[in-house]
Amino acid sequence: MVENTPIYNLFPANFASSAEEAPHPVEQKEYLCGGELKSWSGPFGQVYSPVFVPSPAGGIERYHLGLYPEMDENSMEEVLNAAHKAYDLGRGEWPTMKESDRILHVQDFLNKMMALRDETITWLMWEIGKSKTDSAAEFDRTVEYVADTIEALKNMNRDSAKLELHQDIYAQVRRGPLGVVLCMGPYNYPLNETFATLIPALIMGNTVIFRPARFGFLLMRPFLNLFRDCFPPGVINVIYGDGEKTAGTLMKSGRIDVLAFIGSSRVANILKRQHPRSNRLRSVLGLDAKNPAIILEDADLDVAVSECVNGSLAFNGQRCTALKMIFVHSSLREEFLSLFCKKIEKLKMGMPWESGVDITPLPEPGKPAYLQELVDDALSKGASICNEGGGQSYQSFYSPTVLFPVKPNMRIFEEEQFGPVVPVLEFDDVQAPINYMVQSQYGQQVSIFGRNPGRIAELIDPLVNQVCRVNINTKCQRGPDVYPFNGRKDSAEGTLSVFDALRVFSIRTMVATRDTDANRELFSTILEERSSHFLSTDFIL
Ligand code: G3H
To answer: Global pTM?
Structure first.
């Protein structure tokens, strides 16, 4: 570790100096419903930071960030009614609005959102422990995503601003909304991944009930005013509280048309099963993954090491796309492990706001203990910790830990660690990692490292049918966001990219008529008088 700072000395000793970085604790007592910020009169939950600070009673304690409304089953009816009133069975102002006008609302939101950059970065650091650089990148990527979504919808709209004639039938085909969307994002990208479903759902004319990520409740607070000011009442409603009491109740009501959820497949399965009308429910899901890296015997080791360090440990390994299993050819194993561990030993552990920091505190209170269980299990079954400083934890910190050799009987072989523990296996026959992928419950991505074109080609063809993205000499990742992001098996349902997200939150719907003089005249009049928002050849510039 850089400067050999002991892990127990990483939290700010002098709170006064770090306090200028800390947000003032926030008493969030409101939720957004039907265009109003309503005061919650029930119990409140407390929000604590993964950052520990000196406690007045001695020792250290999690910094108290504030509180949020602990909404319950009974309060969901009001929110559901608000979202349904705005949708009005597809007849509301928002779902029938011209796409060009919905774009103006989202553009207004985007313009106003820019002013929240610094505040959001501070909250990302303190609420989920994301480094300042990564927090800034998350904000900027989200702004770009929203801007690109607007452009993608304009393009889609232009393509459909026409009538087609096939076999005597004129038709105009567009995409229409699906209804009321329940939108829930993950804590590792509480802004970006949430907005990657929320904004497409809104811009396509759906109304939304949005529950922010469980670590990330408070960073959304400034956005509540923007949602209220930029969209018609009830188009977006924001709730807080326990998942079972809020999302579970909403699903059981049968009045949710689309579940947009990024989280675990276990929770997604529970939520889907709770919905009484399964045919009516659409699901857009980003779920578990355990993406492997396969390092072939002719790999460029510098490239493989650098991509694997970044791929497995960026944001402490808390990315669904993280490399969570590394298969290395036995001929390269020793050299790879040595270079890999040396690079990992140079990663800087510290506070999110420190310059050049790589490894930061973990937001899930039970995570260090869980990671320790996985490491202890592997050690008891014959693995060793290969890097200096590995296997250490203190409060919310867990040090990067490389385990070798990992075997199928170890928990880490199958469980998604979602943290800074990196299992390494060696292979002689590439069939071993391929079998691992074939038998895995997950099917998101893979990274292959090698230089022989014939060998790489041989692997591409079977592997594209196991996962949805085969990365060559490159870590696994979601971006650039114009590319499809999805997965097979328990890893996803539906595809998200800037363009695909517009499709998953909408359905093709059309107006058709037989080619007769009377019908042509009827359609021409509607088009000339611009009396329909849907049947229209107006072109968005
Ligand atoms: O947590 C999953 C994210 O979608 C990963 O995104 O690959 O850009 O870090 P990323």
So the answer is: 0.96
